[in-house]
Design a protein that fits this description.
By secondary structure, the protein is mostly helical. About 75% of the residues lie in helices and about 0% in strands.
């Protein structure tokens, strides 16, 4: 009887722990955006459509920075890529200080753009690195485990920052939490300049010396890669838009106030998301990742559809079903898509990290539909996006990619 491959390579435990810490950091940073939407609507007296520029700016930065990040990492390695990402992340966070002093939405957006560039570099480096720290057969399970710490950051971000900004008097300064975060991130960047991360070469990349241009051509000739890229883009449309407008949805109909909504987002929705990712990682040790992805995609389509129908408690259950069953989607699609790309893996990762731009598209579209109709009706956007993921999952399960 053949032994099952280990989840993490024996010599890679320390690098895996260090890289996993980064998943927590960008989860924390991205989750705060969902609180900023509501905060800026009130503190700067802007509309819900205007406030969605927060997500649009951050995720446009992902789209613009991801490919340069992949080229940088290809030339200089994972560790220097991590340090560059952390430096940009930290400097962007500290830029909230002049933004708060001036009370300027434009300065805040500039700071978020710089943070988005930093996060794009970090994710371009860390996602494929975590996937490669062990056997290819356990890549999806391993990446889901690392991404679980991303979920932990998502839980703490809204409750800590939202609790501060939505305090009784509502006088919390947004500069303070970002300043603390900036100092911590820069300290972590300094730590990464002192540690060595082994460069991992997959079996497919042995003996290859593929240039950036050749890698790009190879990837765009691959149907497997292009369909995975589109599926990940659709997932980001759904996941980011739901997170971004969660507080608006649950407060619009008087279901809960904004402070309660912040706690429910953190410990309810995102807590469920993190637990589901851990469970998914365990399940995928025994069940094909493609099969798990297909089942989860069916459930998210149903969940988002129920919210759009606006049928009371059942719709509320549908909302939380989306969080539970979407949890494994990003790391699973990512791991399936980069599989077999060999020396082109870093460039493949950079293209995949452009997909958070879907969050800007989805959030803006949901905000526009909500303005014309209602928040419930706007959930038709994630429902359609999840349906696209379902088609991809079915194709991957039946080896039609």
């Amino acid at each position: 009887m053949q032994n099952k491959p280990s989840l993490i390579g024996r010599n890679y435990l320390l690098p895996f722990i260090l890289i996993t810490s980064l998943f927590f950091m960008w989860g924390f940073a991205r989750a705060i955006l969902d609180v900023l939407n509501k905060h800026f609507q009130e503190s700067l007296d802007i509309s819900i459509v205007h406030s969605t520029m927060i997500q649009a700016t951050t995720y446009v930065a992902y789209a613009l920075m991801a490919l340069p990040a992949g080229i940088f990492i290809t030339c200089y390695g994972y560790r220097r890529g991590v340090v560059l990402g952390l430096l940009l992340f930290g400097l962007g966070a500290l830029a909230f200080i002049p933004g708060d002093m001036l009370g300027s939405f434009g300065v805040f957006l500039t700071a978020l753009f710089i943070i988005g560039c930093g996060l794009a570099v970090l994710e371009t480096a860390a996602n494929p690195y975590a996937a490669e720290l062990g056997s290819p057969q356990t890549a999806a399970s391993r990446l889901n485990l690392a991404q679980s710490f991303n979920g932990f950051g998502c839980i703490l971000g809204p409750v800590l920052v939202g609790g501060f900004l939505f305090s009784g008097e509502g006088e919390g300064s947004v500069a303070l939490p970002y300043s603390i975060m900036g100092v911590v991130v820069l300290a972590v960047a300094l730590m990464f300049t002192r540690v060595k991360l082994p460069e991992i070469k997959s079996e497919e990349s042995e003996g290859e010396n593929t240039g950036v241009t050749s890698s790009i051509r190879q990837l765009w000739r691959s149907r497997h890669f292009k369909t995975g890229l589109f599926a990940l883009f659709c997932y980001e449309i759904a996941e980011i838009s739901i997170n971004s407008l969660f507080i608006n949805y649950v407060t619009d109909d008087g279901w809960m106030d904004k402070m309660t909504a912040t706690w429910v987002l953190s410990f309810g929705a995102l807590g469920l998301f993190m637990i589901a990712r851990v469970v998914g990682s365990s399940v995928m040790k025994y069940v094909r990742a493609e099969k798990v992805l297909t089942v989860c995609a069916v459930m998210t389509v149903l969940g988002a559809g129920l919210v759009a129908l606006n049928i009371g408690v059942i719709s509320k259950i549908g909302l939380f079903a989306c969080y539970a069953f979407e949890a494994i989607m990003f790391p699973t699609i990512f791991a399936i898509t980069i599989r077999g790309n060999g020396a082109s893996t870093k460039i493949a990762s950079s293209f995949l990290m452009m997909t958070p731009l879907g969050g800007a598209v989805g959030t803006s579209l949901m905000g526009w539909i909500a303005g014309l109709t209602s928040m419930s009706t706007a959930f038709v956007v994630p429902a359609v996006a999840y349906a696209a993921v379902l088609v991809y999952a079915y194709m991957a399960l039946n080896k039609k990619l």
